[in-house]
Amino acid sequence: MSTAKTRHMNGGHAVVDCLRNEGVRHVFNVPGESFTSILDGMRDVNDVRLISNRQEGGACLMAEAYAKASRQPGVCVVTRGPGATNASIGVHCARHDSTPLILLVGQVARAARGREAGQEIDYTHFFGSIAKWVIEINDPRRVPEVISRAFHIARSGRPGPVVVSLPRDMLDEAADIPLVAPYPVIRAHPEPGLIKDLVERIAAAQNPIIMAGSGTEYAGAREELIRFSETFQIPVVTTYRRLSAFPNDHPHYLGNVSSAKNAARDAVAGSDLVVAIGTRLNQQSTAG
Length: 288
Prior knowledge:
Elements: E1 6-10, H1 11-21, E2 26-29, H2 36-43, E3 49-52, H3 56-70, E4 74-78, H4 82-96, E5 101-107, H5 123-127, E6 133-136, H6 143-155, E7 161-167, H7 168-172, E8 174-178, H8 192-204, E9 208-212, H9 215-218, H10 222-232, E10 236-238, E11 253-256, H11 263-269, E12 273-277, H12 283-286
Helix pairs in contact: 1-2, 1-6, 3-4
């Protein structure tokens, strides 16, 4: 029975409803028999474009690239076993590039789990070190709850990939499924005392520099970054492959901190205060 707060449908159709609810407009996939209910649900949907590929690695990388270009979570759907392993390169890229990505993976039937079923993989172990969260849905009534949380985790904090495992029989099972609203976007609110401390450090520094990464773009804070640089008269470098984090024609822009030795990297080495915004200080950013 469908009501104002529930709909009677199968798990696969619930997944499609959840994607639409999150504002997803493009889904990348390689069709597979382990998620035919999702494909069936996509058939009558006009506001979500299903883009099919020949290989799952390409599909997942397309979703990851789409997320970079749109600043919205990319979504990829692949089949179990080799479909998941092929897609793992996209998950790895999303992890290292801090890209919000949702990978939906077909799984063997629930009764077959742990019995060395054909193409069965424990995704928690396989993806555990490169994904922000790995979860398997075993009850279709939990589809909205888990999918909503998956998008929230992929977007929040340092963005990254989330993997959701979907047993085939769960996707085919019908139930009264509750509707869940998306998580609200959480904005950071730094403690005033920390802001005061930063201002004092900048005032005391002789050669401060800003190192900007893609976090400023995902936060929609590019203009604020420009004003910050101009207000305090601090030069800016961008991190590895993040040239668009700051206008390259701005007089305060010194260049990109690439993996090779260059003037931008020399400027960072000669500074007495590095203000890292929207980036982590990893090996590529610090040259070691």
